[in-house]
């Protein structure tokens, strides 16, 4: 009997799962947040996602070179555009009285710009991994986000209901795209610190969304683990 071949991305997925778990564990207790803190957290999330997610996924589509990765990302983009996911998020934020203000946008600006600068390099493997990490985080963040909105008096659930389901599929697809791209590039068939550059800058941005007053520092845990793999 042939042994099951381990996916090239299995150790990477394990690292990503741990990173997402750490972010989820760091979320503040909703019961301890006052209404304005709940509003601001939703607003910062919306300020990051609404105008940037499709842009970053488009960069991934431009960067990849394999037909498999391109098809997977194209399906993701088609769904985002066809079903108007930015509008879905805007309705969610409005219903929770959490439309982003200039102050909300300014709170995340520096770290958001760092992600944009990273994406501008169009490094295929690194961007695809970053987006797989993002999709995985969003899936697990949705119940918390829905709870915040509920405490804000909102009954609007389309955004959180949809993304709690579809992003599971999107995450799996992006890891398949990642493997296709890694197999195309022999120099990145093993995890290296540079592979996690996008994950690191995006994680810092997400922490900024969750904890706007906390001083964030570069994350080397994923890189160190990858280097030891």
Task: Please give the structural blueprint.
Layout lengths: L9 H16 L9 H15 L3 H11 L3 H16 L2 H11 L6 H18 L4 H28 L6 H27 L12 H14 L10 H8 L1
Can you name the CATH architecture? Up-down Bundle
- Tell me, briefly, the overall form: globular
Tell me the quaternary state: single chain
H/E topology pattern: HHHHHHHHHH
The CATH class turns out to be: Mainly Alpha
Count of structural domains = 1
CATH H-tier superfamily: Heme oxygenase-like
> Roughly how many Å is the radius of gyration?
17 Å
Our estimate of the beta-strand percent is under 5%
Description of the structure:
- By secondary structure, the protein is an all-alpha fold.
- It has a single domain, classed as Up-down Bundle (Heme Oxygenase, Chain A), CATH 1.20.910.
- 72% of the residues lie in helices and 0% in strands.
- It is built from 10 helices and no strands.
- The chain has helices at 10-25, 35-49, 53-63, 67-82, 85-95, 102-119, 124-151, 158-184, 197-210, 221-228.
- Helix 2 (35-49) packs parallel to helix 6.
- The chain is globular, with a radius of gyration of 17 Å.
- The protein starts with 9 loop residues before the first helix and ends with a helix.
- Residues 218-229 have low confidence and may be disordered.
């Amino acid at each position: 009997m042939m042994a099951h071949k381990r996916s090239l991305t299995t150790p990477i997925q394990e690292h990503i799962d741990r990173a997402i778990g750490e972010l989820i564990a760091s979320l503040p207790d909703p019961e301890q947040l006052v209404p304005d803190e709940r509003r601001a957290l939703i607003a910062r999330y919306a300020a990051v996602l609404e105008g940037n997610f499709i842009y970053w996924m488009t960069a991934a589509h431009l960067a990849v070179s394999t037909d498999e990765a391109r098809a997977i990302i194209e399906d993701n983009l088609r769904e985002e555009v066809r079903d108007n996911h930015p509008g879905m998020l805007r309705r969610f934020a409005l219903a929770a009285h959490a439309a982003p203000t200039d102050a909300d946008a300014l709170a995340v600006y520096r770290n958001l710009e760092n992600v944009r600068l990273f994406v501008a390099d169009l490094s295929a493997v690194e961007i695809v991994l970053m987006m797989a990490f993002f999709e995985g985080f969003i899936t697990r963040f949705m119940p918390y986000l829905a709870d915040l909105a509920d405490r804000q008096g909102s009954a609007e659930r389309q955004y959180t209901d949809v993304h709690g389901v579809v992003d599971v599929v999107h995450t799996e697809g992006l890891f398949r795209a990642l493997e296709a791209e890694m197999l195309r590039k022999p120099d990145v068939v093993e995890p290296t610190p540079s592979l996690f550059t996008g994950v690191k800058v995006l994680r810092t941005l997400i922490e900024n969304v969750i904890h706007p007053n906390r001083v964030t520092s570069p994350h080397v845990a994923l890189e160190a683990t990858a280097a030891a793999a």
